[in-house]
Predict the structure.
Amino acid sequence: MEQTLVLIKPDGMQRGLAGTIIDRLERRGLKIAGMKLIHMDEALAKRHYGIHEGKPFFNDLVSYITSSPIIAMVLEGPNAVEVTRKTMGETNAGNAAPGTIRGDYAITIGRNLVHGSDSPENAVNEINLFFKKEEVISYGKDTDKWVIES
Ligand code: DAT
Ligand code: MG
């Protein structure tokens, strides 16, 4: 089953929205396969956002993501990467549709509450960056058959 990496960013933590964000994703039908509270250091931030190095917002992005503890999660489900990003809403929160996490709780691109991997390939790399193999657990739930038809 597909997995994706989700981060509840510093603004989500500081604003007390961690529970709400987890609730949205969990109720969608995604299963929590890994979860930890971490404070990203500069090295991890630069690796995670390596693709954006050199862009004008890069330094602010690194300071922001390292400014508070965050929650890192592995979520699992059919099409988990795309489902998670659609549930999160557009990167630029000001344009995000109401009903999405960003569209309901955020208003700028630089404080958009949540990260989700953007492709299954990047999801695998990002999960490996944040989690050891034994920290990710795939398991069945009795309710699985009410969420995913077999
Ligand atoms: P996403 O987080 O939706 O995957 P991204 O990978 O393009 O978006 O960018 C990573 C983060 O960087 C994004 O959540 C917010 C910030 N960011 C991206 N583009 C930006 C911009 N033009 N100005 C300020 N921050 C930006
Ligand atoms: Mg991205």
